Amino acid sequence: MSQGRAATPKAAEAQDRGWAWMVLLAAVLLQGMTLGFPSCIGVFFTDLQHEFQASNSETSWFPSIMVATLHGGGPLCSILVKRFGCRFAVMLGGLLSGVGMVASSFCKSISQLYLTAGLITGLGSCFSFQAGVTALGYYFVRWRTLANAMASTGVSLGFTLWPLLSQHLLDEMGWRNTFLIFGGILFNCCVCGAIMRPVQLASESLLQPAKPGEEQGRRAEEAQLSNGASPPLAELGEQRQGTACCQVLWDYLAFDIFCRNKRYQIYTVGVAWMMMGFSLPHTYLVPYAIQNGVEERRAALLISVIGIINILIRPFTGLLSGHRVFTGRRIYLFSLAVLLCGLSNFICVMSARFSVLILYCVIFSVAMSGIGALTFQVLMDVVEMERFSSALGLFTIVESFTLLIGPPLTGMLVDITGDFHYVFYTSSFLLLSAALFMGLSFCALDRKDKVKEASKVPLDNVSRCQYNETTTEPQTESQPPPAVVYVTSI
């Protein structure tokens, strides 16, 4: 359960009904165009190697930079959301991602591709995706778990369509013209952003323009003056700006939450470690199948199978995890999904026949649907919704480092050994260790909380052992009324 202040009547009318479902539809398309897009890069892996005469490690830096920027641009996205609103952030992201892919079609070296498709497109996808998730969290309260699960089906839709479209366009017109068409498709993120009109909250709107830093700077100045200090005007201005800047960075990057919230610490570290292995099959499954004699079209179909299964499974995962039985226990469902995902990789090691790889894709996609449906919902469970945008920014920038180094390091291992089996061995180790770390850590915290609650003396027993004194003076209402809370899960 996350706490927050009450919303205005206008905001309450917009939540969980009416236009909120249009925002959900836009979020589905956004996640399909952003998070689903890197799934098709494996289709171009061999062609890019031949075009630029690059090794496995050098070529894998291209999707690694894209995915790492997609996740690591969270703090910048948080600043844009706070300052200009979710609509602006989503539309700016669509513009950047489209321009990046158009520029990629004219690249003459693999290093230029790192900048255009990796950095620019990745950053644009980050703005569109994360601002869309934040907007969805404010449009849905009661049905937030279901909304997140439904929105994550967009990733599955992207996993299904992007590889098939990529292989078809690659066969017909080559990778350069394909990237040019991809740029036009990603421009449609701007249309999705236009749908996400702001919702004004009573206390503070993360969907409306704000002026961060002004309040902190004013308080710092007042504190100095109250101590009797009389610094020069220029020095006072520098101190004010420095204090405000540090405070804004501290708040935007959610370091205060990371320092005091152990559950947020464990979840952030665990997911970051998990992501280093979770991204490996998406990058190397198609090259692994091609190397073992699978036809290119059938190899590209493997990623689409993962997407199709995800489309069917994710809504049921959202409904299941939204049941009241799992309130406060979704982290264990998430850890179980990560555990199953790690175990499924051993199927690829056993055999590289197409039928066995199809079985692997089915099991992997079932586990992936649980991970995708619960990742952001668990984050909403462990932090307050008012700080979700900042918490999401730090959460994604931490995992971006592991997403960046995972595929290139594994690609270097493949270059040295010439064996793709090490990809799946590495992925399994990282996923299994992350699942055990998160599950056992949260279990220890829950048991510790239960011990603390059991050690407290019940108030009714204390009252029996004490005399009750009645005063003749009327009691003053010094206590403020209790805050209205949002229930983020049902």
Automatic annotation (TrEMBL):
Residue ranges crossing the lipid bilayer per the database entry: 21-45, 61-81, 88-106, 112-139, 146-165, 177-196, 266-287, 299-319, 331-351, 357-379, 391-410, 422-445
Protein's UniProt keywords contain Transmembrane: yes
Gene3D superfamilies for the chain: MFS general substrate transporter like domains (1.20.1250.20)
Organism of origin: Urocolius indicus
Intracellular or extracellular location(s): Membrane
Topology term for the membrane: Multi-pass membrane protein
Gene responsible for this protein: Slc16a5
Keyword terms, alphabetized: Membrane, Transmembrane, Transmembrane helix
Subcellular location, principal: membrane
Keyword presence, Transmembrane: yes
Annotated protein name in UniProt: MOT6 protein
Residues of the Major facilitator superfamily (MFS) profile domain: 20-451
GO molecular function terms listed in the Swiss-Prot or TrEMBL record: monocarboxylic acid transmembrane transporter activity
One Gene Ontology cellular component: basolateral plasma membrane
Pfam families the UniProt entry points to: MFS_1
InterPro entries: MFS, MFS_dom, MFS_trans_sf, Proton-linked_MCT
